[in-house]
User: What shape does this take?
Amino acid sequence: MSEAIEVQPWCPDMGPPPRVRIYSPSHPPRLLVYTLSDWRLASVMARHDWPDRTIGLQLTIRLPVPELSSRDETFCRTYRWDARVMLVLSTGDPPVGIPRGGDLSRTPPRATSTRQPPAPHHAGGGAG
Assistant: This one.
């Protein structure tokens, strides 16, 4: 099985920047992301829509830290949307079938899934 691919941050040499849309931190979309040979729970902070139609999802995700005896710590990472390695969990409900402590099996638990990335949040007012 392939793994999620991290997206590099935008810089001026890359051409036009992506359109960035931010999600509410109180009820963000939640995903399972296959990375580092395991399914990991993540919360979506923002969606990046690139001019070439690539979609990146900026996530908070718990990853092992080798320097800390591989203890999991929370990181901010941006991954390219890929429905083969990302499973959208239903928002607003606690994930079902995920053991405490983040020890997820290779096969994700059953969840409400879509083949699309989380829809962007449309807040009123302001340019976006």
Q: What stands out?
A: The two ends are 36 Å apart (CA to CA). The beta strands are 19-22, 30-35, 38-49, 55-65, 71-80, 86-89.
